[in-house]
Every structure is written in C-alpha cells, then in structure tokens.
Amino acid sequence: MIRKAVLLFAVIAVVAQADAQASRNDEQGVRDFIAHWNAAYTSLDAAALAQMETADFELIDRFGHWIRTEGPGFNERLWALTFKDIYHGKPGPARAIEGIRFLAPDVAIVQARANHSDGVLLDDGTRIPPFWEIDTYTLVKTGAGWRAALLNIHNQMTPGTEGAGEHVPNASGAAPHEK
Hints:
8 strands; 6-stranded mixed beta sheet; alpha+beta; two-stranded antiparallel sheet; 32% strand; Nuclear Transport Factor 2, Chain: A
C-alpha cells in the first residue's frame, strides 16, 4: 500500500511540475505578440509598433545601425519614417516564427524569418536583390503583456547574387577592397 502511495505521489509530482513549467513559459502569449507585431508591421501602423516596445527599446537594423530609443514618441517617429522613406507606403513581409526560447518565465528570445522575395529598391535606384532576414526579438513580459526590448535584424543572402545595378550592403564596415 505504501509503495502504491509513493508511486502515485511521484506521478502527481511529475505532472504538477510539467504543468507548472508550461504555465511559466507563455509560448502562446509570445506567438500572439508576434501575430500582433505582424499585423501592425504589415499595416504600416507605427503607433501600434511603438506601443509594443519597452521604454528602453533598442533596434539593430539590417545595415548594422544600433538605434537606442529616446522613448515611445521616438519609436513611433522611427517606424513612421521607415514606412515612408524606406518602404514607400508598401508593407514589408510578415515574420514567421522559427523558434522560441525562454530564458526566464518573463524573458523570451524569438527567431523569426521574413522573405523579401522581390528585393528592395532604394531611393538612389540601387536594388537589393531578393533576400530573407532572420529577426531576433528579445521579449520581456510586463504588466501590460509581452513587449520587445530589442530587435536585431540579420539579412541573409547568398554572396555574389547581386547583378548589374544591384548592391548587397556591406555590413562589416570595411571597404569592399579590405574584405
């Protein structure tokens, strides 16, 4: 009888621990956050994106620029400028989650992919050939829900794929002859 009680207790403890771990790691909340991010991003809603970021949000853009926020108003202006001057009012692609890793119950790293199948045409006529990117979000859970504290955008393209009139940005900072 005691052996059965001990075995039953062990099974209950394992199930309770698994249930507690699942409730601590809010994967659905993170997936919902990325879905809301996609909705705001593809509808060019700068205000909504700014509200989804922490007060100390940082962005490392696709060209390696490290942008530290000066507050929510700054974030909104940054996204509005991006949508106007870079995307010219045409939405960029949605992000598809590749992986979620919880560092703590209230801190998650999200790897998401976006495919720019048509490339990007810059104002000076330079064309960036088709590419994809991996976006790394560092999310923190606040009283208001999940918020992006850091977004790091990593361009992914095959070297040498650019043609005449196209340019793959040099993210290393070195001049082309210094590589």
